Amino acid sequence: MTNIQGRAKSDRVTLHDVARAAGVSKSSVSRLLDERLPRSNSEVAQRVRKVAKELGYVRDISAANLRRGNTSMIGLIVPRLTDTVMAMLYEALQRAASKTGKVVIVATTDETPEAERRAADTLIGRGVESLILATARHDDPFTKELAERGVKYVQALRTDGIGLSSIGDDQLGGYLATRHLIDLGHRKIGLIAGPAFASTASKRTAGYHQAMQEARLPVDESWIVPSTFGIESGREAVKQLISLPDRPTAVFAVNDNIAIGAFAAIHQMGLSVPQDISLVGYNDIPIVSHLTTPMTSVHVPFDQIASAAFELLNADELSPQERTKISIPTLIPRQSTAPIKA
Prior knowledge:
Layout: H1 15-22, H2 26-32, H3 43-55, H4 61-67, E1 73-78, H5 84-98, E2 103-108, H6 113-125, E3 130-133, H7 142-148, E4 153-156, E5 165-168, H8 170-183, E6 189-192, H9 199-214, E7 224-225, H10 231-242, E8 250-253, H11 256-268, E9 278-283, E10 296-299, H12 302-314, E11 324-327, E12 330-332
Parallel strand pairs: 1-2, 1-3, 3-4, 4-5, 5-11, 6-7, 6-8, 8-9, 9-10
Antiparallel strand pairs: 10-12
InterPro entries: HTH_LacI (IPR000843), LacI/GalR-like_sensor (IPR046335), Lambda_DNA-bd_dom_sf (IPR010982), Peripla_BP_I (IPR028082)
Keywords: DNA-binding, Transcription, Transcription regulation
GO molecular function, one term: transcription cis-regulatory region binding
């Protein structure tokens, strides 16, 4: 028998390792360790289980479920469903899935990488065919880990720049939002930039810089405030901008929730939108058109992004250029933006 003690603990133990150590075939190990089958108490089965335990073998439920074939279930992982953007993505994916007789089941992570991994294992354990991830973070090896396990996945809305991705053109959207304010005569434009780990935030920030540079407008670093994607974060960020000695006359928030928080704080501080400060959000969630001052926002084509995500999942072979599908956003001007006062 192979020396079990000699194996490095950091190595992932495979069925092949157990088979070699137990002196049986890989197919025998797979059958004897499959908990869905009747438990055998033969001498061979007992030896296989003993070796598996000593080696620290953990059954890879992802590979097992992928071998079972079509289950008609797609797993979706999002930060939270209380975020309207993620709820809209889920509904769009559900509509796209229903056209092919599939159903989307969802798990949330609250933006925690560890929870994302647990969510993936839970969904795979339930037999999903593949995963759609709306939780991508820069420099996170999670998608690489999925690929190594043979798990089929696509990223939606956010991307790590490596795996299959269906996203909006966030840099263009950030450019359109900022360019709109510049065209209204604003020169001091603040940015509530969102979290740096999300491609949506970083690309929209890049669009802001692109528009400001194109217009040859200086950017004071104090005008750029990082935030989460939450309402309260927007509230605190805009207070910081308003308290500046030479405060911006307009603010672009890279997410509608952030913009809603900023909108509330501006009014609480005795100022008004757009008379004192013009405000632009992003995603065009339904509520922003029903605020007391309807908000200008960048509309994201969620249904296009959802359909493109399924196209990527169903594609057999893709060139590097085809691995990312980009949908085009549009600016929706409303009453929260106005020309700067002379």
